[in-house]
């Protein structure tokens, strides 16, 4: 949503012309899912189909967003479009809350219910050697008497997770400073704080990549390390993906600000990306406390 439109000079509600982009986006995702399904089932050509689908989908998205930006900067978006964008972003973030809620729920269920039940007296006969201890309380306890899971060491909160927490919290501050600078009409200062925010996001991703390398090669903590390994990598991995997406959002918003888009009065494109980034920060705080400390 750009700032180029002014109240009273735009249509009450903008109805776009028929577009090919929704069908193209769905086609790209079809090739991604179909190729991934073939790939994991042993068909080596599936990875090329996944790559094609991702490239086709990315091409479609850039064209779609370019068209929306052009409509916005062309003065076609009025107040009703602004409201629709705000509702759309709000519901999108709500769906992301439910997405992460499912993984947090799996973590709580396995830790607080499944493991104690498996270690109860009534299951002692069926599994006498089972250790009803969550791995973070006893590093290396895989509760696998059959040896199906190799011993591993859990990931502690220091130093990388704590440093990443500081980076994300700092990025939230710099993003807020950029927002205030934009409202004050200080475009140069806004661009500066935005670049700092993008850099902090890149540093977070780099440290998380090193953390994964450390987990696999030094701690023997992998995705197949039982329920602890699967929940750890699914939660932190999907969060890292969301950081990557949020960083791209902020990067493109920064480029738009440098090109003169947005005004102090109307800049929901900026605000929507900021909402998403703050949501990512909040999710990480939950991960930091529950996954790394508890």
Notable characteristics:
294 residues, Helix Hairpins, 7 helices, globular, Four Helix Bundle (Hemerythrin (Met), subunit A), mainly alpha, disordered N terminus
Question: Mind explaining what this structure looks like?
Answer:
Helix content is 69%, strand content 0%. The protein is built from seven helices and no strands. α6 (226-258) packs antiparallel against α7 (268-293). The longest helix has 40 residues, at 79-118. The chain is globular. The protein starts with 20 loop residues before the first helix and ends with a helix.
Question: What are the SSEs and their pairings?
Answer:
Layout: H1 21-40, H2 46-73, H3 79-118, H4 160-183, H5 187-217, H6 226-258, H7 268-293
Helix pairs in contact: 1-2, 3-6, 3-7, 4-5, 4-7, 5-6, 6-7
């Amino acid at each position: 949503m750009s700032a180029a439109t002014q109240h009273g000079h735009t249509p009450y509600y903008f109805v776009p012309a028929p577009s090919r982009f929704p069908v193209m986006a769905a086609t790209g995702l079809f090739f991604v899912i179909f190729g991934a399904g073939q790939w994991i089932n042993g068909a080596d050509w599936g990875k090329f189909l996944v790559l094609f689908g991702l490239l086709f989908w990315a091409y479609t998205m850039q064209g779609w967003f370019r068209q929306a930006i052009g409509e916005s900067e062309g003065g076609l978006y009025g107040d009703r479009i602004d409201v629709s964008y705000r509702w759309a972003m709000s519901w999108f973030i709500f769906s992301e809350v439910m997405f992460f809620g499912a993984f947090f729920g799996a973590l709580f269920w396995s830790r607080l219910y499944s493991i104690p039940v498996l270690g109860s007296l009534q299951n002692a006969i069926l599994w006498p050697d089972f250790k009803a201890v969550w791995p973070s309380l006893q590093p290396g306890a895989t509760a696998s008497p059959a040896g199906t899971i190799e011993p591993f060491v859990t990931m502690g909160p220091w130093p990388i997770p704590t440093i990443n927490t500081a980076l994300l919290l700092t990025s939230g501050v710099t993003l807020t400073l950029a927002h205030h600078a934009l409202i004050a009409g200080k475009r140069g200062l806004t661009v500066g704080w935005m670049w700092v925010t993008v850099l902090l996001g890149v540093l977070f991703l780099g440290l998380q990549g090193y953390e994964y390398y450390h987990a696999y090669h030094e701690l023997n903590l992998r995705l197949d390390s039982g329920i602890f390994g699967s929940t750890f990598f699914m939660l932190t991995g999907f969060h890292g993906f969301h950081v990557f997406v949020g960083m791209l959002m902020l990067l493109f918003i920064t480029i738009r600000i440098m090109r003169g888009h947005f005004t102090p009065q109307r800049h929901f494109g900026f605000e929507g990306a900021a909402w998403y980034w703050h949501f990512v920060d909040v999710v990480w705080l939950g991960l930091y406390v529950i996954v790394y400390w508890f």
